[in-house]
Amino acid sequence: MELNGSLMLMHALKNEGVKVVFGYPGGAALNIYDEIYKQDFFRHVLVRHEQAAVHAADGYARASGEVGVAIVTSGPGFTNAVTGIATAYMDSIPLVIISGQVPTTLIGTDAFQEIDAVGISRPCTKHNYLVKDIQSLPRILKEAFFIARSGRPGPVHIDLPKDISATIGEFDYPQTISLETYKPTYKGNARQIQKAATAIKESKRPLLYIGGGSISSNARDSILKLCEITKIPAIETLMARGVLGSDCENLLGMVGMHGSYVANMAMSEADLLIALGARFDDRVTGKLSEFAKGADIIHIDIDPSSISKIVQVDYPIVGDVSSVVCEIVELLKDNYNCEIHKTWRDSLKKYNALHPLSFKDSNEVLKPQWVIQKVGEIVSKNAFISTDVGQHQMWCAQFYPFSSPREFITSGGLGTMGFGLPAAMGAKCANPSKISINISGDGSILMNIQELLTCVVENIPVINIVLNNNYLGMVRQWQSFFYDERFSNTNLEIQPDFVKLVESFGGVGYVCEDKDSFEKALKDAISQNKVALLDVRIDRMENVLPMVPTGGALFNMILESKE
Question: Which sequence positions are flagged as catalytic?
Fold first, then answer.
């Protein structure tokens, strides 16, 4: 059948099962938006900033496991979206972003709102396209969704010139895709898997190092089976929080710069690391020359380029984490002796008893760790928890009782302030029956606070808990530890009245200065099912501990504050 380019896009979205699109119209995208006006098979959420459109699509994808979709216009519309695209790229989140572009005849002429969108997006997308003729559009649309969700997921960008979006062409949407240069490997090499299983059997101090790729591959069940059979201790990265669940007896907590003492010591003293979809980020490895010096390394990852990229690996296995772990389980399940690791497990218990993850509670001032634990207690496994970036993010990762994958939605690789609120909005759209809570700092929340209006207008009841210490808290903490308390430009004592601000957008607000008022406010916000903001006044000088100084060895942790 013959369709114009904009209608082809609508049909492609329908074919791909897209239910929600986040976007913001503009001149170059007007043809697309005219077709959006006529369709009724997906919901379009009109955001107030293009960056938020991509973060919302990102939150939708993280919460649902489906491809998130965002539409923006050319020029500044696209450049505003770049931070969101880079955020998704760093965390391997499947997105398709469509940007309007000036007509093909004006490309390269410095036309109004023209920008080299493909050139800009190239370093921060898995793949990108500039559509030059209508005949190629159906294939490009199909490839975009295929590439975004297959292999190591990631964002794909399609730049669609305005004349192409209006041109009539033949729409023959491909049913399958075969790309000569892109064939992800899902099944691991059998010989390497056998070698890895043997190494696990022979190891005295093995450790499961679980990364975000375990969530992408839906590997929770197979990893839990491996834990059950072997009793091997396990650690999670920031991106993997929730894979095992906080009640899993194998779990030692989060590893890395703000990881638990026992998790970091386990990483330092293991004789075998079993890395599952992890990328050996510098916030996890610390000083590379001291990282896991006595350990052989098994690395299972679907992206061959990530293996031995940072740390030399002894047992490389390219493949889907879930599939490979299932095969390892089959090789170990009938003859595995868990007792061989008992001494190792006992020594880790002593480390945990020596420096447990804890904080000094108070009835005089609200401690952020108490607030986060209370949130977990009240919502009882029925919420998405999104965050911005900073101290509140680390406190969430440390103290929230995560129970499942996709429960924690946070910007790991890029560390994007302003991510939390739009991501929470996307998560709520993915699963309206669950509570969606954005835990933010008073610095981060202001970076995309305009999306409170989107939530109100679109009836997306997100609860925002602002841990307000009137500081850029994490930067203040670094200044305290490493810059002799020269608090350069981190004091945020002058802040808006957050309650009046959320009320001006049409939501409800609360000030919480003690435990009782916080608990009442959160329960009231949940019961009202409205867009809400809790301005939670916490201890200004509370720090996130433990902390590994940048470039330091993982086992050299700061365990106490100077203050």
Answer: 50, 112-113, 162, 474
